[in-house]
């Protein structure tokens, strides 16, 4: 029998796996938050997109989201994470580097903190591997949100080329500038959990991509009924509940600020959904399920820049605003402004993410409470313009930061897509667009005959996809 006073090798391994600086509660919450954010993309947005689009595009839309979720990971650990949260290369860009070595990943995570002028490093109470996974989920969700603007016509091959290029040359710039120690970070711009880095970025880039890819077929643009609203609601529900980790994980600890962020998130989302629904009933005489989903999303997006920085009453106000202004831009302005009519933004990502993200950033610049700001590790000396001593400085900083994020994404996304266009078409052929999923993947979302046996389309038969003898069911 082994001497009880001498730790076994297994016990020594356990001791090494739990260093003195590790806080198990913080580490567990951060990994749970990362998983919740990841579930927003897969399966949340995957099945939301699959349900919201026309039947012939259900599979293609889901696959675009699924591919992006997977494709971001190798980009992230091979160069993207350090470009976003590593050492400075330019004031708006970090140096690329590997995030796969054991020594790097098991070491204590480090996050920049700032007092406006002097930037120092703040250590977190869990390993860097946890932070890499958490931030990966945000990057993956951002590019999936962007996909909502180009569903129903973008070539899947062009999308496969676009995702790693966009993460490298667009997303990483916003992430480093606002979160990773770049010039907007040092300037004191507030973006608690990605109103700018995720939502304004995806909205601006998505609208730009929709412009370059071109519109859907006229028949699809004029008539694009969702093929499964119950499926869309399931995806929306995962998205909503996943936001608990999206905003609750950004204090980087299981603390008081995290609790405030979670509660404010759901206050704003619920209020926005109700307000959007009221506008639908007032003007269109019926509540819309799609409208309710849009209102939910705009509320979640709007609160994101200030989730742990504003008081509960401010979250209510932000919900009212986010259920009103994006509703107006989507339901009224989009039918009047020539540019919004010309650019075919399939799911209205410009309105639900870009407009709502700008609103959230601006309102955070007004309502961020000094005490709540002091609880957040990266902006300890900040306050909204609404409070004594705030002046109008923070509000204008927020607008300047929004301008930079929009400008960079318009330019970078345009260059990426024009470069891809030199090699391959950005959109499917008209014949493929008429057919949909079967042309793009040789598969369809639903078996509509018998007990699940496949009904081979004429397109599949013409291209030799049908076996000589179909298997019995």
What's the helix and strand layout?
Elements (H helix, E strand, L loop, with lengths): L8 H9 L6 H29 L5 H28 L2 E3 L2 E2 L7 H5 L1 E7 L4 E9 H20 L8 H23 L4 H5 L7 H19 L4 H5 L6 H20 L7 H29 L4 H15 L8 H11 L2 H7 L6 H5 L6 H19 L2 H6 L17 H29 L8 H6 L1 H5 L16 H5 L11
Antiparallel strand pairs: 1-2, 3-4
Helix pairs in contact: 2-3, 2-5, 2-10, 3-5, 3-6, 5-8, 6-8, 6-18, 8-16, 8-18, 10-11, 10-12, 11-12, 11-13, 12-13, 12-16, 13-16, 14-16, 16-18
Plain-language structure description:
The chain has one domain: Ammonium transporter AmtB like domains (Ammonium transporter fold, Orthogonal Bundle), CATH 1.10.3430. It is built from 21 helices and 4 strands. It has helices at 9-17, 24-52, 58-85, 102-106, 128-147, 156-178, 183-187, 195-213, 218-222, 229-248, 256-284, 289-303, 312-322, 325-331, 338-342, 349-367, 370-375, 393-421, 430-435, 437-441, 458-462, and strands spanning 88-90, 93-94, 108-114, 119-127. Helix 3 crosses helix 5 (128-147) and helix 6 packs antiparallel against helix 8. Mean pLDDT is 90; it is low at 466-473.
- The CATH class designation is Mainly Alpha
- Report the portion of residues in β strands: under 5%
The oligomeric state is: single chain
Could you say how many structural domains there are in total?
1
Please report the distance between the alpha carbons of the first and last residues: 60 Å
Number of helices: 21
CATH fold-level assignment: Ammonium transporter fold
Q: What best-fitting shape do the alpha-carbon axes yield?
A: globular
**How many E strands?**
4
GO molecular function: ammonium channel activity
Transmembrane segments: 28-50, 57-79, 133-151, 163-184, 196-214, 226-243, 263-282, 289-307, 313-333, 354-379, 399-420
Organism: Morella rubra
InterPro entries: Ammonium/urea_transptr (IPR029020), Ammonium_transpt (IPR001905), Ammonium_transpt_CS (IPR018047), NH4_transpt_AmtB-like_dom (IPR024041), RhesusRHD (IPR002229)
